[in-house]
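User: My instructor asked us to take a sequence, write out its structure as tokens, and then describe one feature of it. I'm not sure where to start. Here is the sequence I was given:
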Amino acid sequence: MTALIVIFITLSLMGSALWVLPPKKERERMALRMHARKLGLVVQLTSIDVPDKWDKSLDRVKVAAYSHYRIKPNISLPKNTWLLPYEVWKYHSITTGWWASESLELTDDAKQILAKYQASIVGMRITPEMVALYWREEGDKDTLDAISRVISELIEVNAIKKRD
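Assistant: Let's start with the prediction itself. The structure tokens for your sequence are:
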């Protein structure tokens, strides 16, 4: 009887410990965020307002922002340049399925990466201080490495043509 009580107490303690552990999906997100920090990206949970197709209303979306800050702000850039994976009537098409609020040239590698991960990316924002990618964290370390290459390319942009 004593052995049965000891086994029951041991199992209940193990069950309590396992109940406190985060689920597998949450552990994967934490690993992804740690990998982002190794790549030099700042991760924060945020809400953004993205325009609808006709740019008449803004939709609030809760996402993770993976940002890379410039050491020194680039004052030659516009205050906000948005890249969105859907059409907004007054934005410029920069590649298949992507539109930007200002004229912007991307390399073929960046275009391929944006096309491949279009479904999980909510948008990108370029400011004089940073480049931020807003996404749903759907992917693995290879996805993050590819997205990091696009962010690195955009952080090197020194000038963006302003819309007429």
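For the description part of your assignment, you could build on this observation: The chain has one domain: 24-155. Try explaining in your own words what that tells you about the chain.
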